[in-house]
Amino acid sequence: MADDEKKEGSGGNRKMMLFVIIGVVVLVGAVGVAAYLLGSRSAQNAAPSEDAQVEETAKAEGVGPMIDITDFIINILDKNETRYLKAAITLELDDEATVAEVNERMPQIRDSVLLLVGNKTFAELNDLQGKLQLRAEIIVCLNKLLKKGKVKGIYFTEFVVQ
Prior knowledge:
Elements: H1 2-61, E1 66-76, E2 83-93, H2 96-104, H3 106-118, H4 122-125, H5 128-145, E3 151-161
Antiparallel strand pairs: 1-2, 2-3
């Protein structure tokens, strides 16, 4: 009879332990879901303020004059195949005086971009990081050419690697 009571008591402990484990798992899951939902709400609330800060910065700095440079078709390096880049860019300049200088130096600017991009590989230009790196390199290269003003930004308006 004592053995029967031990078996029943041990079974009750197992059931109780199972309920406790299930309760803990459900509680942890609920806390996780709540944290996720609160995190996404705070991210949504933060996003408009970040956008507002970017807009305020853009308004304070102002958008400079823009010049389009269209239709670059450039051979790029690849071990196995012949690859091409077709691109068009827009230059954002710091002031109107720079526009005249850029127009005067357009052959030099196009040449610099062609030489810079022509030494890139397909792998370098195929991902986002490579495009951002190329953008930074073009800005540095063009600012070395310009004497009176500076290029504030470069925007790829067309970018096809084949």
